[in-house]
Structure formats: C-alpha cells, structure tokens
Predict the structure.
Amino acid sequence: MDGSIRDEYEKREYDMLSEHATKAAESAGRVRFLAPCPMRTVFQRDRDRIIHCKSFRRLKHKTQVFLSPEGDHYRTRLTHTLEVSQIARTIARCLRLNEDLAEAIAMGHDLGHTPFGHSGERVLSDLTGHFEHNEQSLRVVDVLEGGIGLNLTAEVRDGILNHKKATVPSTPEGMVVNYSDRIAYINHDVDDALRAGIIDAIPQACENALGSTHGERINTMIRDIVRSSDLPNIRMSDKIEVITETLRQFMFDNVYFASKAKEEESKAERMIRLLYEHYMRTPDDMGAGAQDKIDEYGRKQTVTDYIAGMTDRYALNAFKEIYIPKGWYKY
C-alpha cells in the first residue's frame, strides 16, 4: 500500500499541474543516491529535510531587520521564511505550479544568513573579499548541515542559490520564490517600521496602487503576478513592478539605511569583525572538530562558516566570553 502513495502524488502532478510546472518524477536528482521514499515525492522530502535541520531552527534567533527587538511581534529570519513560503505556495497554487518545490525552496532560502541580518553579511563580505547569503545557504545544504549536507534535489538547490532579485532560477517555482521573498520582506518590514514608529506612512502613490493595509498590499502583488505571468515566465505588470520598486527604495532610504533602529548596526559589525579576527588567530576556540574542518576547507572558510551559522545571541555570548573581563572572587 505504501509504495503506491508517492506514485499517486506523482501521477496527480501530471493530471493537475500546468505543463510548465516542474514535476517531481522528472527531477534531475541528487548528488548522492537516496532510495525513494514510498510516501513522499522528492520535493516533499526536501522540504521535510530542511524543516527538521538545525540551521532552520537557528533562524528563530537571527535578525530580520531590527536587531534584538524587544517586542514579541517583530519579524525574525524564521518568521520571514514562513511568510515567504506561504506567499510562494499561494502563487504556485494559482498558477498550477509545483507547490512542494516552491515551499522547499522558500524554507531553505535563508539558511546561510548571518547573525544581525545584512549588517553581518556586509562585514563578512568585507573581511573575506566575498560573501553572499544565498551562496552560503547553498553551502549549508550541500556541505555543512550535519557534516555532509542535506543532499537535496538539483531544483531545490538551484532555487536556493538564485532566490535574490538579481539572479534567475531555472524553474518557474524558483522564480515564484524570488518574487515571494521581495513581497514578504518589503511588506513585513513596512509593518514592523510602522509598529516601531520609524515611519508614519508609506508614499501615497504606493498606498493608492497597492492598498492601505498589510494584507491589501500583499494581495495586490500576488494577484498581479498571477494575472501577469505567462508561463513559464513569472512576472509582475510594469505598473506594479514600478510601484513595488518605489516602495522598496522608500524603505532603503527611510528604514534600512537611515533610522534609529539601525544605529546599533555599527556595533554589531564591529563585534563580528572582532570575532572573525579572534578565531582567525585562535581557531581552537571554535570548539572540537575545528582543526579537522580547517584541514578540509581552510582557516578562512571555516571561520566564515562558523560565524555565519551563529544566532544573534550566540554571537553576543561568544563576544562576551572572549572580550568582556570576568570578575575574580576568592572566598
């Protein structure tokens, strides 16, 4: 009985999905052989592997935009990932694309993100000469997670690597996640910035075109993609694309680069820099097994992997342990 469950899912994809959808049965496969699951398609299995890995759990303590927010309602890297996943699934369903593939890509797209958001990414790039969180996310699923990687399918790996605006995924589902990432972060960052009192409103032209509430704006963008896409091409209409970019630029000008909430970022960047320099001098402080990884990947890559994998609070505690003097007591 179990052997027929995956077969039924795969058959259903041919019956229900668009001819342009990526079919699980036609996946380019994995780097290492893995016997098929009797109940799940390869993309469903990839989604589960990502959700159950340690790197995914660490996202709950990684900054999205605001460093260590006091309120419980501000986004973290984990809640961002969940919002991207839900938007991607909605678009994929409406376009009759493979929801399982879109969900797996979305769940894995930020696994390689640094502590302290893009400020951590910037300083690691400066220190190493090159660091991109999308490339690090692929490294997490290919190599780092569990010491051997997650052995994901080629389609999920491609979507993770190419989820940024400037890149082009090879599947329509990957392109859906590319757009969903932008839709999610622009809109939830507006929501968080309004809650924090950093901005009072968005530009009137954006409100007129997209809507006056968080839900209305997301709905407008999703509906526009569903209406404007010509499979296998995923796109926004010219009008909504321009308005979305206007809102995105407004956020860069007023929140991402110029707000009180970002004033602490220079401290976070200095902290990452000092941690990097310390571990480059004293790699054994990274713990057991560090030397084996240095032998395999080199010191710079090992230190980069170690810091990129930290949560905000782990980085803070490591910094305190190394650089903050402890009291000495004798009784």
